[in-house]
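ok trying this again, last paste got cut off
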Amino acid sequence: MKKTKTNPSLSAKRAVTLLVLFAALAPGSFSSAAPARSAPRGQTDTRAEVYNLRSYTHPNFTRIVVDIGVVREYTAAESREAGQINVDIFQARLNPIVSEGSVPSGGDYIGAVRLMQKSPLTVRLTAAVNFSRIKRYQVFHVLDPFRIVIDIFPLDPGEAPEPAPLAAGKTAPPSKQPTTPVHPAQPARSGYSMARQLGLGVRTIVIDPGHGGVDPGCLDDSGHLEKEVNLDISLRLKALLVAHRDIDVILTRETDILVPLETRTVLANQKKADLFISVHVNAFRDKGRRGVETFFLNFSPDPRVNELAARENATTTKTIGEMDKIIRKIVESSKIIESRELAQKIQTNLVQCLSRQYSDIRDLGAKGGPFWTLIGSGMPSVLVEVSHFSNPKEAVRLMDPAYRQKIAQGIYDGLLGYIQSLGKG
């Protein structure tokens, strides 16, 4: 997994905010010394336990690690006035036996590192740093088990800090890099979205293999598991993107582990992804139903879509009391236009790619649906149902590596078509 770099030359109070599905649960304004609050009697405490703080000093950098074990939302920010890097971990509590502070032996560029219960729902890590003695730092996470890592890189001997920003009225020297023709973005079917007006492109794509771990997804009549097919297709898609495009590709899981529905887009938001693609295999009580379809986040009047959404959303831990917030997230989504365009590109190209070699490929279309794995994303997001395990013919095809490769190729072609429509491909 690639590491996300944070540039310490950012303004002192600029936060690198990682938008997540649990944002409504993040605390507002609490005292910095607020004690942890236990769950009400008869209710389970859903906060993750921060159970360890450790640090290592290497020749070229200092590493700080916070062990949590459960995927949680977090944000990173710096304060130059205070000389601090702060990481807030939401829906978390500090284990009372954890040492709340340490001083890594990192020389003159790093001081005390402390953990505290900032509020009943938030644990804060604070690292004291001398910004004039470091060239950069990065905050990222590692899965299985989940932990948050801060790497701080000091200046090399004799190396000067990064130059200050240009003063007002000054201009940088002209670039000597060769220029390439500029192609303006094409309008989406509903016109020029904000992304197209601003000339935005795609650099990072998150691929989400549906289900995993104790959640197998659907099964065919022979007992084959959807989670395995999803992962195989996702790995093939990643290989195509890495081999042919200058794009960073991240998978929400690369092995058979459980990633909760609510945290899949959390990972995409934390990585500042530009696109989110969730890969699934379909199944219905009607074994004659077949074909491929692609969804973007929206409501749907189609009972079959709602049946599918109910099945795909079955593992969420959200409650009816949160329905108003959930509906608001769907209604207020600013990515619907681009998500619809992305879904249409993928659907068209996937059907065309499969139809060149296989007969009876049915185009079920691109449509809206209320899927949890798409809620909360800060980027255009789609869910691709690549074929049906419940259909005997398609179930056999899904066991064929050549068929899975064609699926990956079709999704890749759709992604390329979408990127080119932005004027960036």
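PB: full thing came through this time. Residues 1-42, 163-181, 330-334 have pLDDT under 50 and may be disordered.
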